[in-house]
Design goal:
Order of helices and strands: HHHHHHHHHH
Structural class: mainly alpha
Shape: globular
Helix content: over 70%
Number of helices: 10
């Protein structure tokens, strides 16, 4: 018997978590639109790795450390906010807007994965979900089977949803490639959204 109170409720919570747009969603769509599907799936691997690390950290009791030393969490969030703002400013630059969609980028898989991992680990939505919400589905004692079930459920649903984002983002980028003015507008809007996320995070 695993120590997860309600697997059905857990699946529903993961679905709701994925459907709420956040910096991670925007980062995947941005990378896919600018650099293609391979780069988009590299971003997906980064967000999945970030989720896995957060789950393991929550299981090991790291949330207690953050509760005891909230300044550590604030520093982490501030770093994430600055990073998101930097990404947004890059999207607002004329050079970034003028770059044609789908052209292979110099950065490789590892670079896109690291960028998405950084966004994931400093995303307040991710921190809240893994450190505050997921533990509510466990009852003591937490077993290896329960943790494996949790990891498989969360990672599997996240992979399916984020893979869909990559496919949708790639299709949209190809259409926008034939409409340069609209593509420039969308990229600037994405930049504004990332900067907005950063300001919101710093304000919080």
């Amino acid at each position: 018997m695993h120590s997860i109170d309600s697997l059905g409720s857990l699946v529903l919570a993961v679905l709701v978590f994925q459907l709420i747009p956040g910096p991670g969603t925007l980062a995947i769509l941005r990378t896919t639109a600018q650099h293609g599907m391979r780069a988009g799936f590299a971003s997906v691997s980064g967000t999945l790795l970030g989720g896995l690390l957060c789950m393991l950290a929550a299981a090991s009791g790291l949330e207690a450390v953050f509760r005891g030393h909230p300044q550590a969490l604030h520093l982490l969030q501030a770093g994430g906010a600055l990073y998101l703002g930097w990404m947004g400013c890059r999207l607002m630059r004329p050079a970034a807007v003028a770059a044609p969609a789908g052209v292979p980028a110099a950065p490789g898989w590892a670079c896109h994965c690291r960028q998405a991992l950084a966004v994931s680990l400093t995303n307040p939505k991710v921190i809240l979900f893994y450190f505050a919400l997921l533990p509510l589905f466990f009852r003591a004692p937490v077993t290896a089977e329960s943790l494996a079930t949790m990891v498989g459920c969360v990672s599997g649903i996240s992979l399916l949803y984020q893979a869909g984002l990559v496919l949708a983002g790639h299709a949209a980028a190809r259409r926008l490639g034939r409409l340069p003015s609209l593509r420039r507008l969308v990229q600037r809007a994405a930049g504004v959204a990332l900067i907005g996320f950063a300001i919101r995070l710093l304000w919080a």
